[in-house]
Amino acid sequence: MQQKQVNNVSKLTLSNAACWFRPQKSKHLTSHSDESGDQKKQRSAWVPSFFFRVDREMYHYVGQEIMIEEGLDSYAGMIWPAALALCHYLDTHREELNLVDKAVLEIGAGTGLVSIVASLLGAWVTATDLPVVLNNLRVNLSRNTRGRCRHTPQLAALSWGYDLERTYPTSVYHYDYVMAADVVYHHDFLDELLATMKHFCKPGTTLIWANKVRFETDLTFTKNFKKSFHTRLLTEDGEMKIFMATCREEEGEGDVGMEIQDLLTEEDEEEEEKTDDDELRYDDVDVTEEPHMLETEKEDKEEEQSKSDEKEKTEEIMVLKDDEKEKAEKNDSNSSAIPLQQGRAPIWVPSTNTGFGKDVYHFVGHDITIYESIDSFGAVMWPAALALCSFLDNNRQRVNLQGKEVLELGAGTGLVTIVASLLGASVTATDLPNVLSNLRANVMRNTRGHCRHMPQVAALSWGYDLECTYPTSAYDYDYVMAADVVYHHDFLDELLATMKHFCRPGTTLIWANKVRFETDLTFTENFKNAFNTQLLAEDGEMKIFMATCRE
Predict the structure, then answer these.
(1) Are residues 415 and 339 in the same domain?
(2) Which residues of the chain have pLDDT under 70?
(3) C-alpha radius of gyration, the chain, whole number
(4) 472 falls within a domain
(5) pTM of the prediction?
(6) The pLDDT of residue 193
(7) Buried b (16+ CB within 10 A) or exposed e, 423-441
(8) Number of helical (H) and strand (E) elements in the chain, helices listed first
């Protein structure tokens, strides 16, 4: 058992080993043994044990302090030496491996350290692992990249195997780099791992694999790895090796592919000249990352104070300290959000942390704390969302969400997704990339430890070409939900096309809306013409429709 490996890893030496592993004082969280008898009695049997943390370790890469919480759920809950070695290599070889704006997939991300470092280096990262370890991975990623990175890393479940073309079609999923660290250790799925590497390592992709040799199986896998790819040894120190590999197929030039849920529309590549590390160039139209980007120097004292305040708030949110939860009642007069003021701050300002409202709602027997923000219409609470949540909570037999796959369009602050998750659904919450940070924080805070299925968060821009990015053969849902998504924008045709794309035979679409303008009535008419519709509930201008496709 290598459980203490992380404490001894500093004895391993690559070049300048003291640099690539510089742990500071560990901060141990209070263990369950410190709880009172009453607290132990109150703990429900369903509380997932892998939320129990044993260690917090501090690392230093890319000029940032990175705090990693380990877990007891599996081998994936610990820091392994190959991850530290790979992080050090990436940090000290930035010109050789320039990750800025590159699409990176990490296999077996574990605690997320490699994904965090790659994100801090400017990459667009998708961190993957088995579903059982995603919760700890998600928190580590959010805590250490929120407000620091050019691109906010994404998270996805991935089980190694041979049938990945069905779930991760190569026509959709393409990466510049695939990374893996200490994924070979002590398991019986090495053939599946190699098949997964082959699946993602296509022409134009570079595979970087770090490993510490411990058993004969490591040597066998390394031999098969070298037969499967064109390989090069980047660095080694004793049994610690880092390989670079490319596929054996003929490589050709092509566009740099991006992960499906990011939906990035790329501009022509910028000049290769190296710019100042602290200076970023963004395009107002094509930047799709969340507004929590790499921090630049700002001389304005008010902005500096704002950033300091939001950092404190982010730490409170990401560590999930809800012990100061306030209870407040939401009046109808406060339900309608104030339209966003014009003349917004530049895109790189992490405005979604600047919350102006924190409200507590009560659905499904739970207090749900929602933070609003001032970044866009999608970051405030709208009345149709409250109406839909109330309907779902009070009509559980009519709309039974237990074990159902649910997609929410325009999730905003995430309240509908949270309620659907508490009702037993497996939910994917989608919205534009610039509102995902606040959405993700709200969803995580209110579902962690309470839900049968941990909801996912993904970027989705409405449009007509979704078959290319969200093929119907791979994305199928029992319910598609939308609340107050029609209000005050010029993309109603794209919204209807998106609803049509996801509402296939066997899918039920539930749309809640408060009529405000003539455009609402026009959209409602087009909606009724496009689907078989039924009015579920109404209260004045507030209406909730159920629809199925006409096919």
Answers:
(1) yes
(2) 1-55, 71-77, 186, 250-357, 373-380, 488
(3) 24
(4) yes
(5) 0.41
(6) 95
(7) bbbbbbbbbbbbbbbbbbb
(8) 17, 18
